[in-house]
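Changelog note: in this version the structure field was regenerated for every chain. One regenerated record is shown below for reference.
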Amino acid sequence: MTSVDRYIEAATRENTRRSYRSAIEHFEVSWGGFLPATADSVARYLADHAETHTLNTLRQRLAALAKWHTEQGFPDPTKTPVVKKVLKGIGELHPVKEKQARPLQIEQLEMLITWIDQQLQAALQANDRTCLLTQSRNKALVLIGFWRGFRSDELSRLAIEHIEVTPGEGMNIFLPRSKTDRLNQGQYFKAPALSRLCPVTAYLDWIGNARLTEGPVFSRIDQWVSIPSQSGHPFQSYPATPPI
């Protein structure tokens, strides 16, 4: 891979690459198409899935096919008039309102955090370190995600080195890149310290319980090993901290 190829690879997000690979596999394996594809075969592919796939999904499949042909040096069949007309016709004959997830309401958030707090209390009483870590992380994930409106991929990229906490006031979060940051210049976000449902307290509790000092904020928990300790503390932890 040349240096140019590496930069092009870096410009495409991993979840986008996975989505494109899945789309190519669907065209080639599930549907039985051939690559490189012709405009007619792409048009038939769209028509065959017009009633079972949303327009956005079909557009994503076309984007994957377009990228494959461009990268392999073949003409892009998705830009031909027949493909464009078929896609437009599908939109006319099968108008579907895209489903949107309802935002989490404050009342629902309170119920969820109350349940998590109950699990945390039970974990402390049972000396269950795995449950303690799991629910501590869940609480921080939910509250930081709720108050800042972070996407799941943005939460997974948060790093301890990029967060500054002023106890009683709030926290400053630097996100090196996000979907809305097209120029990859990074963005700063603030999260306030609150008397209830506080993201700052939840964050400090989590990294304190997990004994994290650097690296990803939200580490895996299924690779933590908790064993009885002879030091008086009920559990001694040996963390593995790869990103989510």
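Spot check on this record: The chain has two domains: 3-93, 106-238. Residues 106-126 form the longest helix (21 residues).
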